Amino acid sequence: MQKQYAIPDFVQELMTVSSQGVHKIIQKLSTLLSHPVLVADSLYQILYCSAGNEAIDEIVIMPDQHQESNPHISVFSCQISTINNLKNGLASPITFDNKKLGYIILCSNNTPLETGLYEDPLIYAASLCALQMQKNLEIKQEKQKFKEAFLFDLLYGNIKKKEEIIEYGEIWGWDFSVPHIVIVFSYKEVNHFFTNKHMINMLLQVVENELNLHNLKPIAMAKQSQVITLIPLADAYHAENRSKLEAFTETILKKAEKINLDFEIVCGIGKKYTNPAELFRSYQEAKVALELGILLNITTPLFTDLGLERILYKHDLQDLIEYYNHILGSLLEHDKNHDGNLIETLEALASNQFDMGKTAKESFLHRNTLRYRVKRIEDILHLKLDDLHVRLDIMAAFKIKQLRKI
What we know:
Layout: H1 9-15, H2 22-33, E1 37-41, E2 46-49, E3 60-63, H3 65-68, E4 76-81, E5 86-96, E6 99-108, H4 115-155, H5 162-171, E7 180-187, H6 197-213, E8 220-223, E9 226-232, H7 238-258, E10 265-269, H8 279-296, H9 308-314, H10 317-338, H11 342-351, H12 356-363, H13 367-381, H14 388-404
Helix pairs in contact: 1-4, 2-4, 6-7, 9-14, 10-14, 11-12, 11-13
């Protein structure tokens, strides 16, 4: 005699709405279990709420790290922080083909939820959500191909007509009639053959989520080790735009760090352009700013802030080496022959804008000792350090050393 199995009521109930999307699935689950249900992405950013999406930006998920990292636990405890209170919850991963797409989360206002009561419906609902989320992801990826083709042409200057760019942008709800700026995020210690698509997509997701939080339609794409985004900027004061850009990039860097990515993230910010046909310049500038930011240890480098640095960076290396040796060569030779460190004293002086007081304090030197060293440096170089042109030459030489690792 063949054994018969009873199908739980919740399976049949959830199956009836499974083809109608994630929101319908969690609404039905919420009705069945009499608790609110959330769906978050893999970074715990809320995507759907059974009670409506009006306040999802104010919800923060805090998983039990020990339970979450245990591969033998399919449902783990968490806390849900809202504007008004702190709730208890149970979460289950939403996975498809061994890829984690997000989490389904059951909320309780009061006492912690008992895992045994809710585990089966939560896991089953997660499997239904996985199918819908994977379908949405595939549709998004297909659309992204056309977006990326357009963005590639835009960022490499292949579209010359402003009107054509504005018209294409309207397809995806982007308004290129307003000025834009390009920001590049990248993994620091990678080469051009970097192929970890999962890491790049995680970074792209962080950027797109942050743009959505600012009510901006994301204009972003992944390219090798880079995530490139274009941000509209109103014709506001430079200082106002600058503070917004710095706050945005710093938030991305912090969020990327929080999800424990294997590599450090760096960024570069190009100039603002009113004509979208010139945005390819902003992209090139952002890449230069990124590279200079690494060399100069600047967290959020703006191309507009890099004057002498970007000129020296693009100049012929042999010319720069000759210039460096012409300005500082005799002092370097003296230190080498006498086991001295006068070049370090001069570099400290230059980095402090030739302020004797600040340099003495930073170098732990008595002012009289510093004066003696400055006199020795002037004698060796046959220069006067109070001459403005001499100071500019010396500062340029040390910039060359810093940028070109001489």
